[in-house]
UniProtKB/TrEMBL annotation:
GO terms for biological process: proteasome assembly. The lineage of its organism: Eukaryota, Metazoa, Chordata, Craniata, Vertebrata. Gene3D superfamilies: Leucine-rich Repeat Variant. This is 26S proteasome non-ATPase regulatory subunit 5. It comes from the Eukaryota. Belongs to the proteasome subunit S5B/HSM3 family. It comes from Seriola lalandi dorsalis. Signal peptide: none annotated. GO terms for cellular component: cytosol.
């Protein structure tokens, strides 16, 4: 096969319009199993294919990219660094984005390889060209460049090269291109910072993080909204949160929430501020975050009662997130009537209004009501039961009504609430007392989508996973549920065909 590839390469270099020959080479390469491809191509030189990338013919360029993708992935990163570094560097400045992405992908592979990376680190021009790709018009090119540079930061030599050479100036120069490109550099810096406390130290010393933090309170409210997203990403790592806390950023964001009432444009960035604290509460401690920054919790309750659907949506997601933990449930319960008013509002939203908000409300309610078996203390069971009864005078009927509406996402959202209470004895008692509820669960004719069948199956599984269900539901129902579980989510009972004598 290596011989036929060699002859095809000779044919390609000998014709003026090589489309047909390129297609033949592509077909030949696809016919070689991946495991055997390296042996078939490692002895060849593919300069002719690289040279054909310098063409205005899009079809030719794309065929060459397909061929090179297959070949280069079969070669080791070290082989690429030694033999094709110049060609790949040229690809970074190509007008066609598929060529740029091909080059960036292969450079990304080299950067991850302990021997090949040395070749890249010793080649300033390649790294400068990769940095310049962050300013590319096509987002896919910029993303690939960010990914490759982010991989470089996993080693001290890589960090030294990026932050302690004139490449740092190159990054800052590229940032000046536009607001969009500036935020792409911030994205890279946040990714690098998340790797380890050491990489965060390099980014902090470069002044790029303090520049990002400065944009939180900048005059442009849109860049402010993007800045808060980036800072939230930085808070995903423990060392990132520690750094932000040391810099007083939590207090700054809390003050921004407080000051939002007097800013007519706050609706553009307020959701991001609330999401920041919501994520912080889940990663650290809901109680600590809500007690240290009361402005956050007050604002979430306020947003849940707001007429603006954007505000309501963020409040619902945040309440669901907080309420998914035992500590979060206890924090919400401490607010007494305030939270009951919010829960009533969530019930109204789940029952009527825009479908998207109804679904988000159902999901939040199911998170608030869920309790794992090991969390089921007397106090917590009393808490979830009391919340369920705040939803409506007849909460079981209300959720069942929602589940029968002809929208799959509402049907599944309602089933998830039943799944949340199915492991709790009080929930099982309500189910068995609700006329026809067992038949509703076991009826396979409702909810015909895959998602609906999966949601029903999960509900049955939750009921059976509880140690109290056999006693509360009764042995007959328990056996029927076990049969349902054994048959699986997509079981269809065989319908007996009845023939009538003399019908013909």
């Amino acid at each position: 096969m290596a011989a036929s590839i060699e002859s095809l390469l000779e044919e390609i270099s000998g014709v003026e319009d090589p489309l047909e020959e390129l297609q033949s080479l592509k077909t030949a390469l696809l016919s070689i199993p991946v495991s055997a491809l390296r042996d078939s191509v490692s002895g060849q030189r593919f300069d002719v294919i690289f040279s054909l990338l310098n063409s205005n013919q899009r079809a030719q360029v794309e065929l060459c990219v397909d061929i090179l993708e297959r070949i280069l992935m079969a070669l080791s990163p070290e082989h690429l660094a030694q033999n094709y570094r110049v060609e790949l560097q040229a690809g970074l400045n190509h007008p066609n984005e598929t060529v740029m992405i091909l080059a960036l992908t292969q450079i990304g592979r080299m950067v991850e390889h302990p021997d090949a990376v040395t070749e890249i680190l010793n080649n300033h021009d390649i790294l400068r060209a990769v940095i310049q790709c962050i300013a590319a018009e096509k987002m896919a090119v910029a993303k690939q460049a960010i990914q490759s540079l982010s991989k470089l930061s996993h080693s001290k030599p890589g960090l030294d090269k990026l932050f302690q050479s004139d490449l740092l100036k190159a990054m800052k120069d590229v940032m000046a291109t536009s607001d969009i490109v500036r935020y792409r550099i911030y994205e890279l810096v946040v990714e690098i910072s998340s790797v380890s406390p050491i990489s965060l130290g390099y980014c902090a010393n470069s002044s790029l993080i303090s520049q990002l933090i400065g944009e939180l309170t900048g005059d442009d409210v849109l860049t402010r909204a993007t800045a808060i997203e980036m800072v939230t990403s930085l808070a995903h790592s423990q060392h990132g949160r520690q750094y932000l806390s040391q810099q007083g950023i939590m207090d700054k964001i809390s003050n921004m929430i407080r000051g939002a009432d007097t800013d007519p444009f706050s609706s553009l960035y307020l959701p991001g501020l609330v999401k920041f604290f919501g994520n912080l509460a889940i990663m650290d401690s809901p109680q600590q975050v809500c007690e240290t920054y009361p402005a956050f919790q007050n604002k979430v309750f306020e947003m849940a009662l707001d007429p603006d659907p954007v505000m309501i949506g963020v409040a619902l997601d945040t309440l669901g997130l907080l309420g998914s933990t035992v500590e979060g449930k206890q924090v919400l319960q401490k607010t007494g009537e305030k939270f009951k008013a919010v829960l009533s509002r969530m019930s109204q939203l789940a029952s009527s209004g825009a479908t998207e908000l109804r679904v988000r409300s159902l999901d939040a309610i199911s998170q608030l009501l869920g309790l794992e078996s090991e969390q089921q203390t007397e106090d917590l069971l009393a808490l979830t039961e009391s919340w369920f009864h705040v939803l409506s005078k007849q909460p079981m009927d209300m959720i069942r009504d929602i589940s029968t509406q002809p929208f799959p996402e509402l049907h599944c959202g309602a089933l998830r609430i039943f799944t949340a209470i199915a492991t709790q004895p009080w929930g099982q008692k309500l189910m068995i007392r609700n006329p026809g509820f067992m038949e509703f669960i076991l009826d396979r004719s409702t909810g015909q989508t895959k998602e609906a069948k999966d949601a029903k199956f999960e509900l049955v599984g939750s009921l059976l996973s509880s140690s109290t269900s056999a006693e509360i539901l009764g042995s007959q129902n328990y056996i029927r549920l076990k049969t349902y579980l054994r048959e699986g989510p997509y079981y269809v009972s065989a319908v007996a065909s009845v023939s009538t004598e003399g019908a013909d």
